[in-house]
Automatic annotation (TrEMBL):
Organism expressing this protein natively: Peribacillus cavernae
Enzyme type, top EC level: translocase
Gene Ontology MF term list: ABC-type quaternary ammonium compound transporting activity; ATP binding; ATP hydrolysis activity
InterPro entries, per the entry: AAA+_ATPase, ABC_SmlMolc_Importer, ABC_transporter-like_ATP-bd, ABC_transporter-like_CS, Mo/tungstate-bd_C_term_dom, P-loop_NTPase, Transp-assoc_OB_typ2
This protein's UniProt keywords: ATP-binding, Nucleotide-binding, Transport
Reactions accelerated catalytically: a quaternary ammonium(out) + ATP + H2O = a quaternary ammonium(in) + ADP + phosphate + H(+)
Listed PANTHER family: SPERMIDINE/PUTRESCINE IMPORT ATP-BINDING PROTEIN POTA, SPERMIDINE_PUTRESCINE IMPORT ATP-BINDING PROTEIN POTA
Domain ABC transporter residue range list: 7-237
EC number annotated for this UniProt entry: 7.6.2.9
Coiled coil: none
Full protein name: Carnitine transport ATP-binding protein OpuCA
One of the Pfam families matching this protein, by short name: ABC_tran
Oligomeric form and interacting partners: The complex is composed of two ATP-binding proteins (OpuCA), two transmembrane proteins (OpuCB and OpuCD) and a solute-binding protein (OpuCC).
Length: 366
């Protein structure tokens, strides 16, 4: 294989009593990439990370770091830096002492320690706060120090378990941009855990979507969002609308689906699920994201779409600052639309046209 994996998990199973927590995890993390484990609470993200860190051994399966099997190797021999959601720092030690701890263990000489600590604090913009105790720092500063402490030993691997979950929204945005910059700057292979889909999309090279101990999809953020493999990924990763219909024709490029007495088209590449062989007569479910739907007062104003225009009526309008959230009724069912284009004459009850491109609608067999 040409692609070099820094970390690999092969066939991991883990069970607590009757609770199957990891149900066959196979995963490769490439050298220098930032890979995110994303999924709802309880899906097995921390368990997977603990397997890589060595805090936990799977019932079945192996872990490899740099091509070496480490399944039985204890955490302190795995050369990792770790950051957790809370309690990452030693409370009775200053910032400087927190950072020197790992260096002392590795028998780094004092002057060399100072150099490394200065640089590690500079990386996270915490220079000058060496003598503070964790209780004298804000939540964001503490996590900066925790990241700095993980990096100061120059680990082969950086593991971050929901490091931003306890911070307020603004700080969370700032710090995630910083982690991304820092990670690219030093090039350390990083596994980041979060349950926040926007955070995962914004920070990652690749995202692993997990659900109930299984991996649903591993892809780039844009593929995860625009071309989800499964219904779970579609629904978990963003807002969605869904319809039901029946296939009326299939050719090499498009599938036609009848919904009540209207027809819509779907690109053949947009089928989700394990069974992707579609034929006429199949009952299907269609999914589309609110911002992929165009809306206009007249049919000819729906930009660039000759196909798939449907008459609908507005039921509710919400102003969101950068866009409008428009709820319409289409074929008697609710449809959510997010649009920057807004006609000031619209109100509840207005008749409008809605449309979408066959490339923006996803299909799954029922
Ligand atoms: P996540 O990090 O995705 O929220 P975890 O990996 O922490 O999920 O946990 C996955 C599942 O395993 C949960 O149902 C959790 O209750 C269970 N679990 C985790 N650790 C233990 C343990 N030590 N004993 C029993 N059940 C556990
Ligand atoms: Mg967790």
């Amino acid at each position: 294989q040409a692609i070099k994996n820094d970390v690999e998990i092969k066939g991991a199973f883990k069970q607590y009593g009757s609770n199957i927590v990891l149900n066959g995890i196979n995963l490769g993390v490439k050298q220098g990439e930032l890979l995110t484990l994303l999924g709802p609470s309880g899906c097995g993200k921390t368990t997977t990370l603990n397997l890589i860190a060595g805090f936990l051994e799977a019932d079945e399966g192996d872990v490899y770091i740099k091509g070496k099997k480490v399944t039985k190797v204890p955490p302190f021999k795995r050369d990792l830096g770790m950051v957790f959601q809370t309690y990452s720092l030693f409370p009775h030690m200053t910032v400087y002492e927190n950072l020197s701890f790992g260096l002392k263990l590795r028998k780094v000489a004092k002057p060399e320690q100072k150099k490394k600590i200065d640089r590690a604090l500079e990386l996270v913009k915490m220079s000058g706060l060496e003598n503070r105790y964790p209780r004298e720092l804000s939540g964001g500063q503490r996590q900066r120090v925790a990241i700095s402490r993980a990096l100061v030993v120059e680990p082969e691997l950086l593991l971050l378990d929901e490091p931003l979950s306890n911070l307020d929204a603004k700080l969370r945005h700032e710090l995630r941009a910083e982690i991304k910059r820092l990670q690219k700057e030093i090039g350390v292979t990083t596994i980041f855990v979060t349950h926040d889909q926007e955070e995962a999309l914004s920070i990652s090279d690749r995202v692993v979507v997990m659900n109930a101990g299984k991996i649903e999809q591993i892809s780039s953020p844009t593929s995860i969002y625009n071309h989800p493999d499964t219904e779970f990924v579609f629904q978990f990763i963003g807002k969605s609308n869904s319809f039901e219909g029946k296939i009326t024709s299939v050719d090499s490029r498009k599938i036609s689906v009848q919904m009540e007495n209207e027809i819509t088209h779907v690109d053949v590449g947009n089928i989700m699920g394990t069974d992707r062989a579609c034929k006429v007569g199949d009952e299907v479910k269609l999914y589309i994201r609110p911002e992929k739907i165009c809306i206009a007062a007249a049919a000819e104003n729906v930009s660039g779409l000759s196909l798939d225009l449907h008459k609908a009526s507005i039921t509710q309008l919400n102003y969101l600052g950068t866009s409008w959230e428009v709820a319409v009724s289409l074929l008697g069912k609710p449809l959510q639309i997010l649009t920057p284009d807004f006609d000031s004459s619209w109100q509840a009850g207005s008749e409008v046209y809605v449309g979408w491109s066959p490339s923006d609608i996803m299909l799954i067999k029922k």
